[in-house]
């Protein structure tokens, strides 16, 4: 393995996490991660050393997902029943939140339209800058921030205004 | 002062210029409403940072780590095909291999002389006899040397086997005619490093126009099925074929005629389509 591959190896957990945001089902997500890795290795000469490997690979993943989604409908999606969100949001039950909170967040995230979901994930989960996230999605920065704003508004309603405490 | 939502978001995301960061920071001290909006967005960030956190703690599956560690393919490697552009006055039928579209298994990348060349060498006379009789050597992707002559089991299969018939170490997959009426056939040879190729019938012998590795790479679990003709060979066929491939009747007729060229003008034993 060379340094390119070593860096990619350390990115695997984050790539798998982003794949979950896109594909939801663990098996589908790992298939997507594998496809992303294979494509990245094939196109490694297109990566400019000194730039961020993570946002470059997120872009490859995003495009791979679009290709895959064209061929295959997203399936097996589980929508959160309303009471699960309420239980997770109960501020008097922190242990319950600890167990269910993350999945309430995940469900709320998954309920977002894909454009907003990916924008939220890149900036708020992965910590990319607006510019890096916009580059990953190949959209203007204004498009990115507007998707981000809409996604945030929906998540705030679902997770905070209804009583959940961080 | 009124701070728009977008600016609150940018503040929380650390995307404002330093002077604006400081301005919001100062305003929060005197504006509880603003402070609450900022705190709400910080809370949202904290919540989201835990999303899918489980997968971050897991050790990635072995298959993924192995995919990352696969041997790097040589930079901008040419299509994995040897073309023998050939023989006198047939430049138009020159095989034009192009990069296969499917992603290649990284582990199967050719470094130096790939293993499949060995099997290719066993099936053509040009490589083996060539060294003794000293005709021009086989060239890669260019040159005007005559294409190597099919030998042994390959020659036998090309002469007598029906396309798609499963028999022996060499399998003929497809028969077709070129614009000048010359018969060509694609084949696959099984072995540890399987190959596929295309050969065309000269008056004296079958000449191999192109060969390429076929079937799964060493890693075994990649996409190319052993029964499929590689994209590079299909591209070579595309460059040569005139009309549709021969059907069984057309093949039988061509075989009976000793695979002699049958230009369409003569309405010889060619496929009528």
UniProtKB/TrEMBL annotation, chain A:
| Residue span, RNA polymerase sigma-70 region domain | 11-74
What is the similarity comment for this entry? Belongs to the sigma-70 factor family. ECF subfamily.
What keywords would UniProt list here?
Sigma factor, Transcription, Transcription regulation
UniProt keyword annotation of Transcription regulation present: yes
Protein known as: RNA polymerase sigma-70 factor (ECF subfamily)
Q: Which SUPFAM superfamilies match?
A: Sigma2 domain of RNA polymerase sigma factors (SSF88946), Sigma3 and sigma4 domains of RNA polymerase sigma factors (SSF88659)
Q: Where is the RNA polymerase sigma factor 70 region 4 type domain?
A: 104-155
- Matching InterPro entries, A to Z? RNA_pol_sigma-70-like, RNA_pol_sigma-70_dom, RNA_pol_sigma70_r2, RNA_pol_sigma70_r4_t2, RNA_pol_sigma_r2, RNA_pol_sigma_r3/r4-like, WH-like_DNA-bd_sf
- Is-annotated flag, keyword Zinc? no
**Superkingdom of the source?**
Bacteria
UniProtKB/TrEMBL annotation, chain B:
Source taxon at top rank: Bacteria
Q: Give me the stretches of Basic and acidic residues compositional bias.
A: 90-102
Segments for region (Disordered): 70-109, 252-273
Q: What is this protein called?
A: Anti-sigma factor RsiW
